[in-house]
Design goal:
By secondary structure, this protein is of the alpha+beta class.
Length: 846
């Protein structure tokens, strides 16, 4: 007994000594490590990485940019059942321990001993996990674990338990790029936290341990086992009742990927936003939770996307079926696996689903789309598929389905207006649409191509194409500035001009129909798009003057050829350039600058940028008090990207320049000045000149190449078609007081658009229907909005043949509009002509 007591005494002495040594060692370790420990006070105002969010003007989501999915949530908005699930799974004693758990550390230490030194997971409290995720690396080192404990103790002293738990619930990675419980709930279930069931809360809590390996999508079986264990822990800790437990256990795994729903399809503009915001805010823009509010109207954008796609598909079908995208030899007994393998590398393109033909007869074809759906195509569903022969010719209309499709063909299907499946084909032709507000240049809709995933080249702002006859209104406007009128007579006759680069050394421009009408009024010449009249008109006013004058519409001199071919639209322009140029006609003669970002808010909803664009603002007091005469716009200087006060990070060295996203830069920032005066757009053309040109372009729609647009039944519309040599480009550009819209159709490789059904693919055939579909929808329900007749314009009756004021008794007459200062000259000419006619008549009598 005495020996036992002695041994016990020595054991206690050794234990106490060991404890003292341990405490001393911990003290020394803390003394050595403490100076290097991070300041945990920063966690009180820690900002989680939140992706950049891009929205339309009416608040609908266009895109998010960032590496992570995260939706920060306040601890007060986390439902108790989710908190309890997480605590049950990760740290049941969280609200009672001092930041570390001796029992957990002991278990981890025992595991190391019995496993021969293997460092397993576990032993860390929620506080320690927060410390590790914010300040330390994940490597398994004893020194790291010790530092982790010291940081956890500091956190417990400086933060509340709820603050620590909030950091944990928002910071942790939970699989599939989802960080935090709110992002996980949205991705796995498409729900907000308050909508989660108990079983779903337990599932999310189950992903904390091994988020990549154990999550409801990648490993549903392992996840269910882990979930059920968590539910058992919740029952054991009395967070749920027995009935709730049993109900939750029976609930199946309903998780599947829920990508954040894109409400507005505008990927081309979203990329423009991303690059411009990076230029302004630097790389932090993608992680600091900024919200960019664009100028885009969600409804108009949706209509623009649909109109362009419908127009390009219509063109493509006019030119026939190019055959299946691929062909695979299917075994006779092929089933779902073989069909899925054949379609593995194909994805949906703009609503056109890939499918493989599994059976075909003269009457119908069966097409496998997925394990859940197949479709049957009858002859009507493939009736459009005349075989493509060339850009001007197609084969005969198919009379049997098996002449179009074969078993093993990889094809695409799309639903028609009746909701029925029919054969589809991804167009090779491309197009673009740009629509801006004439008042301030706000981009209302923008589509840069048929499908962004297939081609990210933004033709709406990056393409440099020839506008053809849609450029003629600028030439006519320059001519009206030099004294010509809508009734001026110009000869529509053959013309040959010296040009050493042409065969025979002569340039011989011609009209599209190779016909000539002789002397013709300018109004009629624009309505009929007479090329030779435009060339003679440009020659009369001078190429140099016309080039300088065209810069008033926003074009650079470098884009304008210094020769007479400019009259035929050989400049290099984008659809955005043309929409901007026509907006001058739409707003009374003011040059606005296209822009697409109207506001940038930080994560707290406070503006860090508010656009104050230059406006036409014809009725603004500032413009009325001091109206400057119209003239060339001031030289536009490049604007260096400004760094937001919200961040000190500058733009990266390799950031894209703004020139790469078109002629668009951020307007003046007024977020710190609530009373900023309006910025007035430069007055570039006389409003009377504007009125005359608009009058001519209204006649283009009423009587000319744009006559199809009369179907919209809107007298306020004006516009012009455009087609280039060999039909490489087709345009329609038009406007009213609300919108200026340009549509372009063509091939990226400058191939001819050709002919279909004997009709050449002019602007009226290929581009105008797109413009009509979009403008008809965009302006639906809006009142007419057109430039009123300004002071200084008079309407008189003229002779249709001479273009001069009609004498008494003249029956071949029409009303025409003129500047008032031109009337005296015209009346003098008419009187002189009448005198000459009377003299000739007297001489004939004599």
């Amino acid at each position: 007994m005495r020996i036992f007591k002695r041994l016990l005494r020595w054991a206690l002495i050794l234990a106490f000594s060991g404890l003292l040594l341990g405490v001393a060692a911990l003290g020394v370790a803390y003394w050595l490590i403490a100076p290097r420990l991070p300041n945990v006070d920063q966690l009180k105002d820690y900002r989680m990485q939140v992706p950049l969010r891009v929205e339309s003007a009416d608040g609908k989501l266009i895109a998010t940019f960032g590496e992570t999915r995260r939706i920060p949530v306040d601890i007060a908005h986390v439902p108790d059942r989710l908190k309890h699930a997480v605590l049950s799974a990760e740290d049941a004693d969280f609200y009672s321990h001092p930041g570390f758990d001796w029992h957990g550390i002991a278990r981890a230490a025992w595991h190391v001993i019995i496993s021969g030194g293997e460092k397993g997971s576990g032993g860390s409290t929620i506080t320690q996990q927060v410390a590790r995720n914010f300040f330390l690396s994940p490597e398994k080192l004893y020194s790291r674990k010790l530092i982790e404990i010291f940081i956890a103790v500091r956190m417990e002293n400086e933060l509340t338990k709820d603050q620590i738990l909030e950091l944990y619930l928002n910071k942790m990675f939970l699989g599939h790029r989802a960080y935090g419980v709110a992002a996980a709930a949205e991705y796995y279930y498409g729900k907000t936290l308050d909508q989660l069931t108990i079983a779903e809360c337990a599932t999310i809590a189950s992903t904390f341990q091994l988020p990549s390996a154990v999550n409801p999508i990648n490993s549903p079986t392992r996840m269910l086992a882990r979930r059920n264990w968590v539910l058992g822990q919740m029952l054991e800790h009395r967070y749920i009742s027995k009935q709730e437990y049993e109900q939750a256990i029976r609930e199946p795994n309903n998780a599947y990927p829920h990508e954040q729903p894109i409400e507005v399809e505008a990927p081309y503009l979203a990329e423009m936003v991303r690059r411009q915001v990076l230029d302004r805010l630097g790389n932090d823009a993608l992680t600091d939770g900024y919200v960019v509010k664009t100028t885009l109207d969600s409804q108009r954008q949706t209509e623009a996307v649909q109109a362009l796609r419908d127009g390009l598909v219509a063109y493509d079908r006019r030119h026939g079926w190019r055959g299946p995208e691929a062909h695979t030899d299917l075994p006779a007994n092929a089933g779902t696996k073989e069909f899925d393998d054949a379609l593995a590398s194909y994805s949906s393109v703009s609503g056109m689903l890939p499918g493989v033909v599994t059976a075909v007869t003269p009457q119908q074809a069966t097409v496998y789309l997925s394990s859940r759906e197949s479709a049957t195509l009858d002859l009507a569903a493939v009736s459009w598929a005349r075989p493509y022969v060339s850009d001007t010719r197609t084969g005969a209309t198919p009379k049997a389905v098996d002449t179009v499709l074969k078993r093993g063909d990889i094809i695409r299907l799309a639903r028609n207006d009746k909701g029925e499946w029919e054969l589809a084909q991804v167009p090779k032709v491309q197009g673009a649409l740009a629509s801006v507000s004439p008042e301030d240049g706000a981009i209302e809709a923008l589509v840069g191509g048929f499908n962004f995933a297939r081609s990210k080249f933004n033709r709406a702002v990056m393409a440099a194409r020839q506008p053809g006859s849609s450029f003629k209104p600028y030439i006519y406007s320059a001519a009206f500035e030099r004294g010509f009128t809508p009734a001026s007579i110009v000869n529509d006759a053959p013309l040959a001009l010296p040009d050493p680069s042409k065969p025979g050394g002569l340039w011989t421009p011609a009209n599209d129909d190779n016909k000539f009408d002789g002397p013709i009024r300018l109004r009629q010449a624009l309505v009929e798009s007479k090329n030779l009249v435009s060339v003679r008109l440009l020659d009369a006013i001078g190429v140099s003057f016309a080039r300088e004058y065209a810069t008033r519409f926003g074009f650079s001199l470098d884009a304008l050829p210094a020769n007479l071919s400019m009259a035929l639209g050989t400049a290099s322009v984008s659809p955005m350039d043309m929409a901007r140029g026509y907006s001058v006609f739409a707003n009374g003669g003011y040059l606005v600058k296209p822009y697409f970002i109207k506001e940038i808010d930080d994560r707290d909803g406070k503006p860090v940028y508010l656009a104050n664009p230059a406006r036409a603002c014809r009725s603004c007091q500032e413009r009325l008090l001091n109206p400057p005469p119209p003239g060339p716009p001031p030289v536009e200087k490049s604007v260096a990207p400004a760094t937001s006060p919200a961040t000190s990070t500058s733009a990266p060295a390799g950031a894209a320049s703004l020139a790469d996203v078109g002629d668009t830069v951020l307007p003046e920032d007024t977020h710190g000045d609530a009373k900023a005066p309006p910025v007035l757009a430069p007055h570039v053309i006389d409003i009377r000149n504007d009125y005359l040109i608009t009058s001519l372009m209204k006649d283009v729609i009423l009587h000319g190449t744009g006559a199809a647009a009369r179907a919209l039944n809107r007298p306020d519309l004006a516009g012009k078609t455009g087609t280039t040599n060999d039909h490489r480009d087709a345009w329609f550009v038009g406007f009213n007081g609300d919108l200026s819209t340009a549509v372009w159709v063509g091939f990226d490789d400058f191939t001819s658009l050709g002919r279909a059904n004997g009709v050449a693919e002019f602007g009226a055939q290929a581009a105008l229907p797109i413009w009509m579909q979009y403008m008809g929808a965009a302006l639906k329900g809006l009142p007419e909005n057109s430039l009123p007749m300004p002071p200084g314009i008079s309407t008189i009756t003229i002779d249709r043949t001479t273009g001069l004021p009609a004498p008494p008794g003249d029956t071949d007459t029409m009303p025409e509009v003129f500047k008032v200062e031109d009337l005296d000259k015209l009346r003098s000419q008419a009187a002189q002509q009448q005198q000459d006619k009377d003299k000739k008549h007297a001489y004939d009598i004599f």
